[in-house]
Amino acid sequence: MEAAFFDLDKTIIARASMAAYVPALRRAGYLNAPMAARAAWGQVLFRFFGADEDRMDKARRTALKLAAGWEQDGLRRLARDHLTELIEPIVYDEALDLLEHHRSEGRMLVLVSAAPIEIVEPMAAHLQMDRAIATTPLIDAGGYYTGGVEFYAHGPDKAKAMTRLATEEGLDLDGSWAYSDSVTDLPMLESVGHPVVVNPDRELRREAARREWPILEFENPVALGDRIPIDRNWIVATAITFAVFFGVMSMVRRVRRRA
Prior knowledge:
52% of the residues lie in helices and 17% in strands. By secondary structure, it is of the alpha/beta class. The strands form two sheets. It has a seven-stranded mixed β-sheet with strand order 5-4-3-1-6-7-8. A two-stranded antiparallel sheet has the order 2-9.
């Protein structure tokens, strides 16, 4: 069996997933204004100057420090509850076409990201992908982040995780595909027989040209609900609840006026 491995940030979605969640994290009290500003500035640097090892390691240490003491279940709920609001509108239409192509070819679809597993797993499920490889933070006995990391899905470790998955699932990596935008994912791309770069940073673009790898430019974020059916029953239920509530309140007001 073959697989198609997809990076998340700037490959499937048009911006960094953690940055997309910053407003929700601030509203929920996880981040104060200075923290949110630092996160936003970090994404500006990432966007315009690439992501070498030193910058990525510094960003990782900062994120782990910020997360220390947070409750894992709370972050899982936040990621799930805000997925359609924050992530759905920035999915690349071209990426959805590729996912559908590989799905029709019978390949396993795997989302591979350095973002926390709490964010990556709901996204993989939302995109109807088969598996997720992501950073796994350390959690204490009470279910809170310690600030440490059990597995960091970055650079060579992404490739190692892909190899482990291939062994477990009997995947043919030589016949498999991988997609990424960042030069830090060279090991991921080198792990498969069909590497493809998407919206590459400057270093990866140079490397792809040297190796004659395909280069794709994704430019069209689309509302995911326009392409993949989304369960919005909870929206309907909420609307009905509010309609009933306001209907009852209106009736109560009319009764009071008559009295």
